[in-house]
Specification:
Chain lengths: ~180, ~180, ~180
Amino acid sequence: MPPVPIGIIVCSDRAALGAYEDRGGPAVEAYLRSVLATPWRPSLSIVRDERKAIAATIVRLADVEGCPLILTTGGTGPALRDVTPEATLDVCDRQLHGFAEAMRTASLAEVPTAILSRQLAAIRSSSLVINLPGKPAAIKTCLDAVFAAVPYCIDLIGGPRLDTDPDVCAAFRPKS
Amino acid sequence: MPPVPIGIIVCSDRAALGAYEDRGGPAVEAYLRSVLATPWRPSLSIVRDERKAIAATIVRLADVEGCPLILTTGGTGPALRDVTPEATLDVCDRQLHGFAEAMRTASLAEVPTAILSRQLAAIRSSSLVINLPGKPAAIKTCLDAVFAAVPYCIDLIGGPRLDTDPDVCAAFRPKS
Amino acid sequence: MPPVPIGIIVCSDRAALGAYEDRGGPAVEAYLRSVLATPWRPSLSIVRDERKAIAATIVRLADVEGCPLILTTGGTGPALRDVTPEATLDVCDRQLHGFAEAMRTASLAEVPTAILSRQLAAIRSSSLVINLPGKPAAIKTCLDAVFAAVPYCIDLIGGPRLDTDPDVCAAFRPKS
């Protein structure tokens, strides 16, 4: 089995222009490295905060590269240039509101401005797309809140089996 | 007063084909039997996981049979054949996000995969439609989380008065 | 600096007809008076529960009067005449689901019927619009649940700086 490709999309004007050293992408990759027991490889893209560019990147990672999991970082706030949630919905079929609720609830225990996040999760065919914040600490908070449900979600949408390191996160699969 | 008709829709390919003994429908009916003090009668339909069939059943139960409450079970997950939430929104006017949030929060205290549920609640004219999971234990968790608000909701949308057994669930009606 | 205009919209058929002394508007104004340290002035409108009238009032307060914050009270329930959320979405660009979740969660700790509220928050250009319930006690519960994030939200959408009385509510602005 070749390693499972996992998409990481950094949505940031400044990072895309090289004006800024992105910390979101490395934080997402470090989290995946700690949590996944199944062999995988990152497919990283850094794109500007442009709705069409982000949407096209999701489509490529899902349809061409076959990533069962695509994590975006950045662009989820209320500002005009924050368009990651819109771009995600543009190319996904169905939304999973429970991810957004759980990530915001966990973030809200840390900062009251967590309610400003418009991050969401949605499915494109056999790919699960999850929007994450841009800050490393907030990325970990959000992934900790939802990752136990990610492998079973990918089972249900027809993706490959992913196993986790149970000391980091116990992936849950209901018996039946 | 004739008994109030309450719709129960089992959304399941396997149950509709008779390949499987459905446990969701009986669990919903048992819950209603324990909680409702007002005379009522179930109107049960078992339908395949087809968006149009589920939507048409909701319309019939609401508009023809006059059910003020319609409970669906099954078809709320992320898989391709799970279409109950889409079918519900196809024929309803307004969504009540608070029901979905409360049901997911209660379920999440039991299993981390609760965030995968896309279940929702919405109103069609004078009927309240609530999507429930397929498993009996999860059905009870969800109904326990929201049922206290169901009778007042039905008051507000012009349905008949429903009373509950206060030892099972204390229906809440604000004074005003 | 002239005082910052803040919009308050009372959505109520009875109040608009003068058949009823509205208590929502004064409760919103009293809350703002206690929480804001920055000079401000209320711009109050009382409108009927008509979708077009409410939407037009939001547009006027945002575009003509330049209110960075617009608070509505009333019209968020499941009844047919409750149309404030629809009117808000008609004239706003992006929704902030975290506000609605936090307000419902706080209200749910007080009354089980909090899940019936369809209140939401959304942005129109540089204005943040938040739907509130009609009852004074519920208004305070909701504003207490979200106000710490309001000033930073208005910063992010390009509005004026608002400061709060830290003894009432500590506005949070992340360092970065």
